[in-house]
Amino acid sequence: MSRRTKFMLAPLALAPLLLFGLWLWREQATMIWLSGFFSACL
Amino acid sequence: MKRPWIVIAAAAAIVTLAMGVRQAFGLFLPQMSVSLGIGRESFGLSIAISNLVFGLAQPFLGAVGDRHGAGRIVFFGGLLYAAGICGAAWVGSALGLHLTFGVLVGIALAATTFVIVLGAVGRVVPPERRGLAFGIVTAGGSLGQFLVVPVAQMLLSELGYRLALIALAGLVALCALLAFGVAGKPAAPAGQDRRQSLGDALAEAAGHRGYWLLNAGFFVCGFHLAFIATHFPAYLDDKGLGLGIGASALALVGLFNIFGSYLFGLSGDFWRMKYVLGAIYAARGLVIAAFLLLPLSPMSALVFAAAMGFLWLGTVPLTSGLVGRIFGVRYLSTLYGIVFLSHQIGSFFGAWAAGLAFDRTGSYDTVWAASIALALFAAIVHLPIRDAPVARLQPT
């Protein structure tokens, strides 16, 4: 595997953290939406 | 000099916390506006003040960071951030919220986010690795947005807004500890750099057409992000799509933003940054046009969110990297701080003008059209940028 490919794939090392993040979003998504989050998150 | 990986890791952790907590403020709107009896407009004004102060303070704090190092600025910013959030937990009026969430947090954001820490990172990594390093740090900010928002919502649901804010204050106070990772006075400049004062650096940038073009491009970036983040859910709601789609879209923006920030940063080490930047803006225009032309469905909204998320903050490592490449890293935080101010002004117009246009015309059509036109404009203005280092930095 080339050096460039290794660099490109490096973020996959975060996979467990990203899966945890997705689970958190699944748990909280509706509440986050209802909070009007979009309108004040800039 | 510190090991580069320590500085990069500390910088990424700092922006993960600072950007993540910042993005969670919107969650507190319903509870706080009811509890304080201030209405959503006042709460929104506090956030708007925060964004304005964030942009206005950035060049000044950047200049201090360039002179004295990022460590002190981040240390001070972490404590101020925590103080601002704790203050917001205890205030009982709109004015108090404006001063805490607005002014204190706005200054703290300018002290703990990209402009300051990228300056520190730029000084310890070699130019050929700067894209990768900036990409990692920017991805940290994206990761924070992705992870902290649902955690904050969980805290809010379990603890109520005051205790949840205190918990978030504890989180951002960690920035003060992490500041030691980016601490260290910038090394004494060598050669031609030695004679350059801050005024000289500003004059040099002001006389470089490319610097103005970068400002124009980053204005467009701010416009796009603010318009979509503020008005996209309302657009989906107007079109009859359900709540779940909006929330899923938000998560996808956050998730794909992590990959985009990293990969576009990395790409700056392999390709000319101005072309990658131009491609990002052109891609935004194409994605928006395709989204509008194709029939609207839950799937098209999710694909649009993922694509825009991928293109979301990829501009940060490339724009800051280009400033560093052309003008050197000695005044990087100052010069990039000014470009960031353009971004914040674009954000203001993206959020405000889109609302105004909707009120006048009853639809977002003109703003979508303006977004595509601005994307093409930004794609084109990056092409003529002279991206070679200025003569002062050329080997003699």
* General shape of chain B: globular
Proportion of beta-strand residues of chain A? under 5%
What is the percent of helical residues of chain A?
over 70%
Order of helices and strands of chain A: HHH
Give the gist of this structure.
The complex is a heterodimer of chains A (42) and B (396). Chain A has three helices and no strands. Chain A has 42 residues and is an all-alpha fold.
3D architecture notes:
- The complex is a heterodimer of chains A (42) and B (396).
- With 42 residues, chain A is mostly helical.
- Chain A has three helices and no strands.
- The relative contact order of chain A is 0.08.
- Chain B is mainly α.
- Chain B has 16 helices and no strands.
- Chain B has helices spanning 4-23, 29-36, 39-68, 70-90, 94-112, 114-124, 130-159, 161-182, 198-206, 209-238, 243-267, 273-293, 298-310, 315-327, 332-361, 365-381.
- Chain B is globular, with a radius of gyration of 20 Å.
- Classes of the chains: A mainly alpha (42), B mainly alpha (396).
- The interface between A and B is large, with 29 and 47 residues.
What labels describe this entry?
heterodimer; A: 42 residues; mainly alpha; 74% helix; B: 396 residues; 16 helices; 81% helix; 0% strand; globular
Question: Secondary-structure blueprint of this entry?
Answer:
The complex is a heterodimer of chains A (about 40) and B (about 400).
Chain A: H1 3-9, H2 15-34, H3 37-40
Chain B: H1 4-23, H2 29-36, H3 39-68, H4 70-90, H5 94-112, H6 114-124, H7 130-159, H8 161-182, H9 198-206, H10 209-238, H11 243-267, H12 273-293, H13 298-310, H14 315-327, H15 332-361, H16 365-381
Helix pairs in contact in B: 1-6, 1-7, 1-8, 2-3, 3-4, 3-5, 3-6, 3-15, 4-5, 4-6, 4-8, 6-7, 6-14, 6-15, 7-8, 7-11, 7-14, 10-15, 10-16, 11-13, 11-14, 12-13, 12-14, 12-16
